[in-house]
Amino acid sequence: MTVGLSEADIARLVHAFRHGGSAALDLSFGATRLRLGAVRAETSVEPVTAPMVGVFCAEVAPGNTVQPDSILGRIRSVRAETPVRAGRAGVITALAAADGDFVEYNARLAEIRIGAG
Amino acid sequence: MKRVFVANRGEIALRIIRACEAAGLETVLGVSEADRASLPARQATRAVCIGPAPSAESYLNVDAVVSAALGTGCDALHPGYGFLAENADLADFCAQQGFTFIGPRAQTIRELGDKISARRLAQAAGVPVVPGRDRLDSHADALAAIDEIGLPILLKATAGGGGRGMQVVRDRDRVASAFDTARAEARAAFGDGTLYAERFVARARHVEVQVLGDCHGKVIHLGERDCTLQRRHQKIVEEGPATHVPAGVVARMRQAAVDLAASVGYQGAGTVEFIFDQDTGAFHFLEVNTRIQVEHPVTEMLTGVDLVGQQLRIAAGEPLDLNQDDIVLTGHAIECRINAEAVSRGFWPTPGEIVTWQPPEGPGIRVDSHCHPGYVVPPFYDSMLAKLIVHGTDRSDALRRMTEALAAFRQTGIDTTLDFLRALIERPEVLANDVSTRWVETVLEQPDFAARLGGIRG
After folding, report:
1. Using CA atoms, how far apart are residues B200 and B131, in angstroms rounded to an integer?
2. In 3D, which of B86, B80, B140, B93 has the Cα closest to residue B113?
3. Interface predicted TM-score of the whole assembly (ipTM), two decimals
4. Could B52 and A79 be called an inter-chain contact, meaning their C-beta atoms sit closer than 8 Å?
């Protein structure tokens, strides 16, 4: 039988790494090599921007989980309502525009933390 | 009127913003993503992005423009020229939303924008229109057109433009073959072989009259501009007054422009364009431009009237504070359009970064431009960089000043039409004013002219 880390050992190490504040861990133990790296928090947050100039009508709130085709809200222009789609899966961390705000084209409306669903 | 939405870009956006500043009005400029950092965006009270760089999604998007104007609390909209300037739907839409469109009423834009209805209105107002026959279905119709109009005639495609489906007939015997060729070309190009005929003017001058009308029924003219120097129907050099058209003809043109504008209750600034036939001495109505025009500074230099300022006053419902007697054309003014184009490559657009930008300065010189050192000319829009306007005591004095001003204009970084204009303005035909609307195209083919510019293709 090969000497290595058990699944329980790995789970404990991952837990310790997550809460220990280290940026990277590279550990070899017998036949097992474990490499862990911290994902930088800011790179996993992506903005969703306005597809049209007009009034933003929010339909989600921070904390909501979204899929790529989820609708975060709508931009109401004089002649149309343009849906704002999430474009990626994740969790809404913040709304950059309030419901009812006038927003420019490409203005930041919300932030989504990727893969955190 | 407190806050004006400026629905344009480039030099005219800057011109409108400055006129609003002078009138104590705030401005909001709608910009595309490509123009966020432009000089007019910095000059306006506020700039808002209305869409991506391509104009169909920004400057031409009526919904985006009106939504941005409403969202920023504007109570008026100035469309400038080009883009949505002659869009009657925008004028209607502004009225529905309860704010002021700075231009004529939607109905005026609509009825003068349609060629057939404009021609009918001109005739009804007693303005001479080009002799013609509306619908030619056969060789017999074409011969009847010659009998009515007199030779030479021009056969044109009703659906057409750009010279296709167009044939000049100078001789009765050639009418059948010209008719067949024009109809075949029209069918191939536009899917519609319908032809009409009008008198062919071989040596035409383009003369246009500036008018102003207020919402109390008063209409005046501000003299005329001669825009005969064109290339493929694009104006290159404009001047005023029209010294090479007999005074009696100019007086009739001015009156015709006022009569036509008054007949439709014209409100705002407009231009009535005419063709002057140098061989017969006759003139006829061409079209009405229901907007401020590129070449409006020529009239401003001649009359001292701020035309954009007048547009703002008229839109606010104020009566014209000018009478016809107040309008005096002093001296002579000339404008050259400086474009980002490579003349040697068939006037191909040359977007890119301007490194040096030193326009001439001095008495009698005006430069309307949004350019500056380090400005990157985007590839998405019209290629005009600047308008250089000079004023002199008479035409030869103005030409001399233009020659000096063009010589002093320093620009490096991209190819422009500056050298072309320098060569053009010194031509003996220009000095003698012996030109027609097709002359620039012929001079471009002359080897000595092309050689001066290092060769011309296209």
Report:
1. 9
2. B86
3. 0.86
4. no
